[in-house]
Amino acid sequence: MKFFVDTADVAAIRELNDLGMVDGVTTNPSLILKSGRDIAEVTREICEIVSGPVSAEVVASDAEGMIAEGRHLAKIADNIAVKVPLTWDGLRACKVLSGEGRMVNVTLCFSPAQAILAAKAGASFISPFIGRLDDINLDGMELIAQIREIYDNYDWTTEILAASIRSVNHITDAARIGADVITAPPAVIKAMASHVLTDKGLDQFNADWAKTGQKIV
Ligand code: E4P
Description:
alpha/beta
């Protein structure tokens, strides 16, 4: 399973990348806003740190506008994946941009039917949003399972990029189902290292070690 980081926070990306935890990055307009930085400038900096796909999202609503923005964003670096929304125009833009040999990430996917269309339009990645489905009491993880089953039925190569991840369980459940990629906020990736029994065990070992009066170095 590949790990993408869902952020435009360069310091956070650098920290995880130094640990070998980053196979790619996803951004969106909200994350660019949060970064407080210019989209081209911050995306270029991210692409200098990470060699894997870096998703940069278009904001036009018509296919022609999305294609123009996608071509512009793709000039930032060779590893840009143009992110387009799962609308009819987004699918048209996906078809054209993927036909030009560019990576395309089709985002805001909330149904298996939408995921089928993205694969047919030549998407490199389909981004089903788990957390936002859970937010309205639908089963985000079930969507990942349904898309996995469908794509496997036909050996489609579009990668399932499990997005809108809010918890460690989202990551482990997506891994069990066989999502190709997860994209998660840095805090959720770091939370994967935490376990209450690890902390408890460490406290006990440290207390016992202090009683020995020994030093290792
Ligand atoms: C994915 O590419 C999106 O940027 C992201 O996962 C959305 O997550 P959210 O629903 O927590 O905003």
